Amino acid sequence: MKKIMILLVLGIVLSLATVHAGGKAEEKDGAAATPQKVELKVFMSFPRFKEQFETYFEQFKAKELAEKNIDVTIKLEMPNADQANQILKTRLASNDAPDVFTLHAIADIPSFYEAGYLSDLSGQPFVNYLFDSVKKTVTYDGKVVALPLESLSWGYLYNREIFSRFNLTPPQTLKEMEEVIAVLKRNNVTPFLLAFQESWIPQLMMALSLGGVVSSENPGFIASMNAGTGSYNDVRAVFAIIDLIMKNGSAKPFEVGSAAGSADFANGKAAMWVQGPWMAETILKVNPDMQIGVAPLPVSNNPAGAMINLATSTSLAVSPESKNRQVALDLVNYILDETSSAPLFEALKFNPVASMHTYESFPWVEEASEYVAKGKAYQDLPLPGGVTGETAKMLQSYYTGSVTQEQIIAALDKAWADSLKTASN
Amino acid sequence: MKRLRENTILLTFVLPAFLFYFLFVLVSASGGLYYSLTNWNLLNRSYDMVGLANYVEALTDDPVFIQSLLFTLKYVGAMVVLQNGLALLLAVLVEGRKKDKPFFRTLFFMPNMLSLIIGGFMWMFIFTRVLPYVAEHTALKFLDQSWIGDPIFSFYSILILSLWGGVGYLMIIYIAAIQGIPAALLESAAIDGAGPFQVFRHISFPMILPAVTIGVFLTLNSSFKVFDAVYALTGGGPGRATQVVALNIFEEAFHMNNRYGYASAKAMILFLIVFLITMVQLWVMKRRELEA
């Protein structure tokens, strides 16, 4: 009997709690003068920019209250980038979608769109400000489905000071790269920094070399892979530069992660590092005087193959299930506000993505932009997420010598086929 | 009638724990069983039942999974022998101390109170910074290995971390068992002129066999499911050289193509393997135990 009583009490307490929680959301309508209360759930994979975004959202709240008489509360959730994707997917799958969330433009948009988790933002005011090249990266199925936050002009990093000490310029072909390596070695400078502890870093080599090879020699590669007729065997040339880097890299790469790697690179332990400009802030923290250069990775003896990768990574999307859709859209539009947006993007050290971003960019961004202006650039290849993950593991194994090029080709072909299988249901 | 009442009382005591176990383990496990028959990708709103296709693929067309199974078996083998052996050795040594017994007991048990993830980061520092430094400044040149980056040595690093974290717990079990041996038996053996080794071999060891059963059971169980030690130390790397099954499942579900249904099927296979092996182990060892 007592047990039943306890259960009853428990049940009552629980139901009271839910009623209470439900009650809160329904306090919307009141007298016309009292502001309407709205709670927005915002999910961003930017713990390193928490402060900047919190300040920015405060500005947004003030604006929304003044213009529309809406009192917005923002529940900001900022998990680490490497867990954010899992958390977000679980939240979406359990019908607990945040109103506004970040996702990766190239890797996530297709699958999220197909599953119906992205709103069509094509008619939103912010779209008019976007640069065309950036707009392309967040357009899917003819619709703009996200607001680009981080856009990149991406190549490998090099130490300008070391390069100028030996009168070197960034090589454009494999042959020139070999000469640069020879000069560096003669002067006891390690040519490449290897930091392979986190598998996404060795993966960057393949991303850049595949981009170069595909864009300059095999433009039909992605289409043929998606049709199930292609194979990585068609782009076997990607291994030439990878072999060269691995052979001329620093020792014990598996003990070095991205943080330790940044410190090593900032301290001049090697002349080049296949990483990206997103590490600039970390590197400059270690050595504020470091002169970072960004150059396209040569992939063959054809200088046209050395190209800068144009990519959009983190982007902002609105859930179609949002109960406060209009406020969510206001928030997204405010990210590219005519006056407030430029200071935000500058503070975050992001590249300009829209016409109001007129601030002066960093020297390495300028350097990469010069290559882009010369047409030596391509749009980031749309690889399935599973293939990128597989590449990461395979390149680690390739360094230790436990897999051959043949095995890598077979594994990547299988990963691609698997991703087609899962995407098609 | 009395028996029924007794059982009801006992069950009531178990009820709170069972309730949580039911809600958070059994219910979710049956969910896993259900998803293992689908091709859900964690994101799509709809998915199809694919029957046993996931199981067939895991066992016949997934060399990475099989390789991770083999690596896990190797790890389990090493752990069962080393963890129990070391725990028993420590238990005997600690029991042999007089005054400082509690001190050593606490000392060896301490790592067990830390999460293996934290332990993993500590040992990562030791393997990548301390040992090379020691090798550089002393004559112990053999310590200068790529402890995390070399497939062979990273296996040893994982073993060292797991043993460091796990031995203390088993040691406590063995200490309890040793203390449970009737003193009369040991004394009469001593009077009969048995040496310390003979006493251990013919009296202590048979008397603590029930504890060994538990120890082997616990080690088997936890080593098959090992995740945190490997995740914190090598992440399964370099490449997939140290990828254990749990890590392979995690990767399949959350990192690669999000084949959630397929990953659930692999998890079910792992469950069946652990279930079968531990059942056989319990059955075999129970038969050999003595009643004190």
Write a structural description.
The complex is a heterodimer of chains A (425) and B (292). Chain A is an alpha/beta fold. Chain A has two domains: 156 residues, 3-Layer(aba) Sandwich (D-Maltodextrin-Binding Protein, domain 2), CATH 3.40.190.10; 218 residues, D-Maltodextrin-Binding Protein, domain 2. Chain A is built from 17 helices and 14 strands. Chain A has a five-stranded mixed sheet. In chain A, strands 9-10-8-11 form a four-stranded mixed sheet. In chain A, strands 7-12-14 form a three-stranded mixed sheet, sandwiched between helices. Chain A is globular. The termini of chain A are far apart. In chain B, α9 packs antiparallel against α12. The model of chain B has no long low-confidence stretch (mean pLDDT 88). Chain B has a single domain, classed as MetI-like fold. In chain B, 35% of the residues are buried. By secondary structure, chain B is mainly alpha-helical.
Q: How many beta strands in the DSSP annotation of chain A?
A: 14
Uncertain stretches of chain A: 16-31
The rounded Rg of chain B comes to 23 Å
Number of structural domains of chain B: 1
CATH homology superfamily of the largest domain in chain A: Periplasmic binding protein-like II
Strand content of chain B: under 5%
What pair of chains forms the biggest interface?
A-B, 43 and 32 residues
Helix percent band of chain B: over 70%
CATH architecture of the largest domain in chain A: 3-Layer(aba) Sandwich
Shape of chain B: globular
Strand content of chain A: 5-15%
Gyration radius of chain A, in Å? 24 Å
CATH class assignment of the largest domain in chain A: Alpha Beta
Distance between the termini of chain B: 32 Å
**Largest sheet, spatial ordering of strands of chain A:** 2-1-3-13-6
Shape of chain A: globular
